[in-house]
Amino acid sequence: MAVSKIITGLFQKKILYENSPDKINFKLAHSWLKETYWCKGISLEKVEKGFRESTTVVSAHSGNRMVGIARCVSDTTRFGYIADVYVEESARGKGIARAMVRNLISQSSLRDVEHWYLFTKDAHGVYRDIGFRTYDKPERLMHLAATKK
Ligand SMILES: CC(C)(COP(=O)(O)OP(=O)(O)OC[C@H]1O[C@@H](n2cnc3c(N)ncnc32)[C@H](O)[C@@H]1OP(=O)(O)O)[C@@H](O)C(=O)NCCC(=O)NCCS
User: Domain spans of the chain?
Assistant: First the structure.
């Protein structure tokens, strides 16, 4: 086994994965997400609502420090959409993002899900290892940006 994998394994033992929105430090989650390219400037209220209204959430904790978050929106039968995968900068490169996504897709409430989807600009490598592939029929994908009310 490669030394890096052993170190990752040792680190991973110290990470606790929680599946309750009540375990999420929303102020910290907001400070992360409001700087991302996909929801830049998002409000704290929207971050909290988004996680609380999701089908399943996960947060990663090192001691009493939250180091990662992710969520899944699903009909629990045919599809699941993974969103807001974020790992604090100092905790990156240790397998936490992959562990959170694996945690989400292996939840018993999502066992019937047939297709998993996500959008990413540049983190394809994180998900490829889990089995995700670029969608082979992009012409089937449609999008509508809601008009501001
Ligand atoms: C992307 C992100 C979630 C990865 O978290 P992480 O815990 O470091 O990821 P992991 O350790 O589980 O996996 C890292 C692996 O993915 C690869 N990778 C590919 N694209 C990457 C990217 N844009 N950022 C980080 N890692 C990337 C790494 O090379 C590494 O591969 P390896 O294990 O073969 O060496 C983290 O960098 C982050 O929060 N970035 C800012 C927010 C973001 O872009 N989120 C993704 C939205 S889809």
Answer: 3-134
